[in-house]
Amino acid sequence: MAVEKGGSEAEQALVDQWRDMLALHARTQCELDRALHRHGLCASDFEVLDVLAESPARDVSCGFRVQEIAERVHLSQSALSRLIARLEKDGLVERGLCAEDRRGVRVALTGKGRALHGDVRPVQRAVLTRMLTD
Questions:
Q1: pLDDT of 99-132, one tens digit each?
Q2: Topology at the third CATH level for domain 9-132
Q3: Which residues pair with 64 in a beta bridge?
């Protein structure tokens, strides 16, 4: 292992570990996208459905606030808004105004979204198992 001038072996090991994590993330993301594409989803779509599926909410008044979803799926607010609009257009989620804050938006799975999530969840979990276990 070549150590750059001024860098220690410990620093280089840390950088190598970071790069290995990035590579594993990229490979896993590609595998998820490939597997989920057969079901009309990408990995980010599924992540949003998966977060929403954790809520027992059956209507939008009890769904997650967009800000709560953004924190869990690590997307910008604007990227998440576009993704949610696409999922809504496909009939997988519904949006509504927050009763407690009229500027906020809540999102919940529709019946169609809950069914698709149930069908696709084993596919996503299988990819994660294959990619992330030794």
A1: 666 667 889 999 999 999 999 999 999 999 999 9
A2: Arc Repressor Mutant, subunit A (1.10.10)
A3: 107
